[in-house]
Every structure is written in structure tokens, then in C-alpha cells.
Amino acid sequence: MSSSSGATARTRAGRALVVAAALLATAVGAVACGDGGADQLLSGAPPADGRSGAGSTAASAGGDIDGDAGADPGAPLFAALLPELNASCGGACHAKGGGGAPTYLSPPDPYASIKAFPGIVVSDPSTSVLLTKGRHEGPDLVDPLRTQVEQWLQAEAPSVPQKPLPTTDAFDVQVGTNEVDLSNTGAGLTGAKLTFSAQAQGTILTLSDMQVLAPAAAGVHVVAPIFVVIPQQGAELPDTSFSNADQSIEPGQTATLEPGMLILTDWSAGARMRIEFTRIEAVQPTAGADGGGVTGGGCKAVAQFQADAVPVIQQNGCLNCHDTGGSGNGALDLSALAANPPDYATACNQALTRADPQNPPQSDIVVAPTGGVANHPFKNASSTFAPMMEAWIGAEK
Length: 397
Fold this sequence. Notes:
Blueprint: H1 3-29, H2 38-42, H3 55-62, H4 74-89, H5 91-94, H6 110-116, H7 129-132, H8 145-156, E1 176-181, E2 193-201, E3 204-213, E4 219-230, E5 237-239, E6 246-249, E7 254-256, E8 262-264, E9 272-283, H9 302-315, H10 319-322, H11 344-352, H12 364-367, H13 385-395
Antiparallel strand pairs: 1-2, 2-3, 3-7, 3-8, 4-5, 4-6, 4-9
């Protein structure tokens, strides 16, 4: 083995030990924001509700990575803050993805997970979505954790390539209906559009009924759009309220850009706007052209979905929220089950986006209705719900 490859191997091993030490400290000393305990984390899932005081233990366990100064300089800092970050943001939320939350603390390597997630480790730490998100369904970052996160992001920033995000052209915002062309974002999405209705009152601009139209040739995958206000004078003002957005829209379809409304409080007369995207790309459809089958990546066990999953979905009233117009339709669209006749293939494809065939019991579509996701409005699914759903999900493996 060459000296360079040996150093790389030691660096990777050292990083794994640092993160493992932090995970172990969290498991011993914390109950995080999900629904389990220390045994949950050690088995690959983050712990449940509570706080951890084990950060100093993780830091002392980490130190410099195998003595290689400058190699992954942010890793020891991340290991030191990981227990508190897991307790505040991980668990059922950003480790498991409960309630549709983006997963950036995924086991078995949260460090690799968070560095790979768009918009967190960036060249300008002040714009990281970890710092700009504020209070949402979960808590804002507060000191001392916030300062630790800032120091870690600053350590990572020099190694981040300077690459501009895909963006629309600047456009004027008109009172009433607006249409923004998404074709020029470099994603090969000719004909894609974002529409919204705008109202202005002083410095407050409200954008509502925000809809993404996918072109007929390809679906659209949108992640964390950033709405950038361009005043006539002064610096641009980016807004990251949609940092949790991660949606795919089928070809030729229109869907609400969740949550469908944006309120800006720093608007000024004569300002313009553009929209940056942490990611925007064309995606292939999940349903076959004739609606009767699916292409690669879709459901393989539609018949079992119909036999096992559909009855318990209906019995537990899931369509009350996940049908057209329902409060949960944007997160999971099961409206195809309400069609006449039902379109089981399309519904199965949708349900599969919230399923984990490698670990059926931890699927979001199982965990949320059975009480494992704090902000899910329905938590009392019947005793038959989980086993029936898991039988179908297991068949998709």
C-alpha cells in the first residue's frame, strides 16, 4: 500500500472512530427526539426525546484524526457537537425522515450524511440551512450548540468548491398571478414553470398558491429553493424558508410547492426576485405510459399492495388527509385510491416513496400513523396496520 493510500485509509478509519465515539456517547447519555432509547441508536436508529451531555466525551475520544493534521479538519468538531445535534434535530426527524423531514443525520455515518446534504456545508457558513432555518416544526439552534455548529461549518468551508447554484433569471413580481420560467436553470426542463399569486403591503410580500408545472417530457425534482430578493440598492436578500422542500412532480402534472405560501418581510418597491435551487433536475416518470405498469424504480408488488396495504389504509382513514385537497396530500398523495376505478399502480408508487424495503418497520408510512412521528396528526393506527403494511413493503425488496 502506498503512503498516500495508507494515510487515506487511516483518515477514514479515524473519522469512523470519531463519529462512532460520538454516537456511543449519545446512546449512553441521551434520549433524543424520536421514540426510542439508547438501544435504538446502537442498532442504527437515533435515540428518542431528550438532551445529551456527552459532547465533551465525544470530543476527547476524537481529537486529531489519526494524527493527520489537516485531514478532514471538521470531523473532530462535528463529533463533539453530534450528541447535542442528534438530541435537538435527529431521532425520528432528520435521522429517520419522519413526517417527511429531510434526512441529513442518517446512520451509519452521520458525518458523511450531513456533508452530502445540499445546502448545509457551504462555502459561506452564514448561508447554511442549519443556521438560517430558524424555528420550524422543530426547534431553532441555540447556544452553545449554535456556536459549535458555526465553528464546524467554518472549518469545513475552505474545502467547499465555489459552484453557483442553478437559478432563474431575475424577474419582476406583479400583484396577482405570476409565472416564472424554470427552463433556463440548466436542468433540461424546457416548459417547466412555477406559478404563484402575489400581494404586497408595505414591506410585506406574500406569495401564495405556489405551483410547479412539470413539462410533458420529464418530471421535475426540486430541492430547497431559495427565494432571492434583489433590491434596487444594496445586497441581495436570500430567503431559505423552503429549506425542507424535496419534491418530485410527474411529467405534465402540476403540484403545490409545499407549503404553498411564502411571506417576505423585507420587500421594497422596485425590487426584483430570482429563485436559486439547491437542486433541480429532470426525473423519469414512475408510472408506465399506459398507466398499467411501472418503470424501473416503481412498485414491484402492486398486487400485494392492493391486497395487504390498501385495506388498512382505507380502514384507518388515511385518505382523509392524503386525498386531493387533504392537508397531507403534498407529503403523500394517495388520491389514486379514490379514483373510480382505483389506480393501484400509481398509489403504490406514491406509497413506496415513504417506504423502506430494507427495513419495513422503520418505514415512514408505518412509523408516522403508529405514533412514531411527533408532528403527524394521526398516531393511533389499528393493530393490523403495521403488519399488513410491512408485508407489502417487504415484498418490494
